[in-house]
Amino acid sequence: MAFAQERETGHFGRQIYFKKMYTLLDTAYKDNAKNMAFIMNEIGRITKDPQMGISKISIVSSASPDGYHIRNEKYSKERAESIINLISGKYPETKSLFEVVSKGIDWDGAIEVVEASDVQYKDEVLKILREAPIEEERNGKMVYPRHDQLYRLRGGVPYKWLTENSFKELRKTVVEVWYWKELPMPAPQEPKDTVTPPAPAPAPVPVKVEPAPERLPQPCFAVKTNFLYDFTATPNFGIEIPIKNKWSIGANYTFPWWIWSHNARAYQALYWEVYARRWLGNREKKDVLSGWFLGFNGGGGYYDIEPHRSLPHRGYQGWGLTASLEAGYAFYLSDRWSMEFSVAAGYGHTDYAKYKGVLDDEHLVWQHDDHREWFGPTKVNASIVYLIYHKGDKAKRKQLRDQRRYEK
To answer: In this structure, are strands 52-63 and 98-105 parallel, antiparallel, or unpaired?
Structure first.
């Protein structure tokens, strides 16, 4: 007679809280470090026990009423996703077990915290929370009466008090893990005629799946200067825009405009350059605008150079253009700063007029025209780069660093 193996079930859970506008785990906030460590340790214990398993992991995330309605909906969803990524990143076998509810603004919870608070005008606040519609359409536009009435009530006094004292309890994600455990089977009776059972199939070898590391938020653009040029009194400025994580486009402007020695010497040039770059390597593991790259540059400009101090003063005026291939490497110094090194080689062409300065260079006397062409080096670059992000990404980068420290 065969016996079905019995199971016992159970569950455990913890709450993870978030600061205002935060969507990633901050282990320094409230009891997040202790609560998240408990969840991770228990999941690890269950996954290692062959007699236990996880049925589901429930994630219920919410936001507080303070702030913009649409943005709070987004925060609620991203808070749930951040906890899911943290758990499934360490335990990939749990990826299919999550049941997620993103509540958006937790209005029911808001009623509970207001009832338990000492806020002024409590009855008026509760009347708005219970009776005012959450959203409605007016003149073809969606409005949010409940939030707006709460915000304006009594000059904003109760709203400000609740934001500072009570609403922070609503910015949270509730994690509940449901599990089962096999109970020992009763000993079966020995049959009279026994048949040797087939050898059990070998257990499958688990494959370790490494989650893709989460990158810092992508900068909108970067500004830079080639300090090798700066050291030679050649001021310059550049801007670079990333296109996802594999490509970028940019432009540089070089603008020395110097005259000295009583107008006897000149170093004047205006040069524009545009470029496109392909960033190499596994871009899922690298931050944008970092690592090795290949690029194509094209530029042009005009110049007036009078290098000779001895009489008669002689100089060169003309224009030129370049087209070249570039290779280089960039790396982050911090969230905001990076360094970039590269060299470029290709084709160059210039047409110029040689002149002689007379009457203290009040007049320039043309001597002859000429031109030059060459194939070879066109640029040496060592730039300091400043990265500019979307508004609000500063807090997100800090949270990501906290999460990386926690994972270590």
So the answer is: parallel
The residues with which 385 forms a beta bridge, in sequence order, are 224, 338
Beta strand 291-306 with 313-332 is: antiparallel
What is d(CA 309, CA 116) in angstroms, rounded to the nearest whole number? 85
Tokens of residue 327, six digits: 């290779």
At position 139, the amino acid (one-letter code) is N
247 DSSP β-pair partners: 243, 278
- Which tokens in the block code for residue 227? 């300090």
SS3 110: helix
CB 91, CB 44: distance < 8 Å: yes
**pLDDT tens, residue by residue, 204-253:** 555 454 444 555 577 889 999 999 999 988 999 999 999 988 999 999 99
What pLDDT digit, counting tens, does each position of 16-45 carry? Answer: 999 888 888 888 898 999 999 999 999 999
Residues 141, 123: contact at Cβ < 8 Å?
no
Exposure of 83 by Cβ count < 10 A (0-12 exposed, 13-18 middle, 19+ buried)?
buried
pTM of the model: 0.51
Cβ atoms of 225 and 383 within 8 Å: the answer is: yes
DSSP 295-361: EEEEEEEEEEEE---SSSEEEEEEEEEEEEEEEEEEEESSSSEEEEEEEEEEEEEEEEEEEEEETTT
Counting every residue, how long is the chain?
Answer: 408
In degrees rounded to 5, what are phi and psi of residue 29? -95, 130
Q: What DSSP string runs through 160-209?
A: HHHHHHTGGGGSEEEEEEEEEEEPPPPPPPPPSS--PPPPPPPPPPPPP-
Q: How many CA atoms lie within 13 A of 124 on its CB side?
A: 14
Q: How would DSSP label each residue in 10-43?
A: EEEEEEEE--TT--S--TTSTTHHHHHHHHHHHH
Rounded Cα–Cα distance for residues 15 and 328 (Å):
47
Cα(276)–Cα(137) distance, integer angstroms? 46
* CA–CA gap between residue 125 and residue 115 (Å, rounded): 10
Output the CA–CA distances (angstroms, integers) from residue 187 to 49, 125, 194, 275, in the order listed. 22, 64, 16, 76
Q: How many CB atoms lie within 10 A of CB 89?
A: 18
Task: Assign 349 to helix, strand or coil.
Answer: strand
